[in-house]
Amino acid sequence: MNTRPPLTLLVLAVLQDGPQHGYGIARAIRQRSGDRLDAKEGSLYPALHQLEAGGLVSSEEQHAEGRARRTYTLTGAGLAALREQREGWSRQVRAVQAVLGTAS
Amino acid sequence: MTPSPAFWRWCALATRGVAPGARERLVRELEAHYLDALEAYRAAGCRAGRAEQLALRDLGDPRALRSVYLRTYPTEGQARRYAAIAAWTASGPARIRLIGAYAALMALGWAAGLVAPDVALGSALLAAALLWLLPAWLAARLGEVRATLALWALVVPWQAAAPLWSVWQLEGGVLLLNALAGLLVYALFLTWWLGPLWRKARFLAPRASSGSC
């Protein structure tokens, strides 16, 4: 049983608020979770690239302040996947809460 | 601001064995990420050396990440294998059709032989239709290289499991051993050789690169 939210769900949820680059996504996850979720940031990019290969996000490289950053944007398919994964995660949380409630 | 030597050592360790195209993009994004983190820590008041340590710590353990990267991205060997398959596929679509025809003939011959040994004409007509339809259908849906991989996945079990087709000619114990050996060959073929290429094909399809790191 996997009790951690999948990284892809967190990434899609952050991108729902607007396009973002990798560091911005990692910072948003950390800040929104109150520093409770601290997935190693190097693992963010395989997740982003797989989401892009699956058509759930798109990306564009932009040059600003002498640096190249790749910005990721949620696609329509990504939004649908986010809703589905969010519902799946909510079901999982309710199931755990039901067990804890029964056990107490 | 440029990354420290420690960052490049981290990158070299974390991305060792990843195919060049995937590695370049990954390193470019990790570099931008590291520099953003460095700026944030410096802006928060950290000294340069401490900021570099924290930015690298946030990226994670390079050895642990290397296994993640090698599972996700094509390896150097897989990229070479894919390039060879792509070159072979592009060099003559008729070769794909030939493999498709072989697979279709084997499948139909086996099925027809089970149902009615004398339906050779019907099998041949259906096989002729499949000669044209199957490879084109697969290529339209999967892309040329993945279509090649799919056709090979159809063809190999017929060879690997050949002893099963001569069930009436072998003693029980020998049949079992041959069947197990055939299935083992096919399982290894799928999981070790074809499966990773299939899964990582999306990272291997040619794309326009925007410079190297």
SSE layout:
The complex is a heterodimer of chains A (104) and B (213).
Chain A: H1 7-15, E1 20-21, H2 22-32, H3 44-53, E2 57-64, E3 67-74, H4 76-103
Chain B: H1 5-14, H2 20-43, H3 48-59, H4 62-72, H5 76-91, H6 93-115, H7 120-142, H8 144-160, H9 162-165, H10 172-204
State the share of residues found in helices of chain B, binned by percent.
over 70%
Q: What oligomeric assembly is this protein in?
A: heterodimer
Distance between the termini of chain B: 15 Å
Structural class of chain A: alpha+beta
Strand content of chain B: under 5%
- Pair with the biggest interface: A-B, 21 and 27 residues
Q: Cα-atom Rg of chain B, whole angstroms?
A: 25 Å
- Please report the number of helical segments of chain A: 4
Taken in chain order, the helices and strands of chain B follow as HHHHHHHHHH
Describe the protein in words.
- The complex is a heterodimer of chains A (104) and B (213).
- Chain A has 104 residues and is α+β, with helices and mostly antiparallel strands.
- Chain A has helices spanning 7-15, 22-32, 44-53, 76-103, and strands at 20-21, 57-64, 67-74.
- In chain A, strand 2 and strand 3 form a beta hairpin.
- The longest helix of chain A is centred in the last third of the chain and has 28 residues, at 76-103.
- The two termini of chain B are 15 Å apart.
- Chain B is 81% helix and 0% strand.
- The longest helix of chain B has 33 residues, at 172-204.
- Classes of the chains: A alpha+beta (104), B mainly alpha (213).
- The A-B interface holds A 21-24, 26-27, 40-46, 49-50, 53, 61, 67-70 and B 14, 25-26, 28-30, 32-33, 35-37, 40, 58-62, 64-65, 68-69, 72-73, 202-203, 210-211.
Can I get a quick summary?
Chain A has 104 residues and is of the alpha+beta class. Chain A contains four helices and three strands; from the N terminus they run αβααββα.
Task: State the main characteristics.
heterodimer; A: 104 residues; alpha+beta; three-stranded antiparallel beta sheet; 4 helices; 3 strands; 56% helix; B: 213 residues; mainly alpha; 10 helices
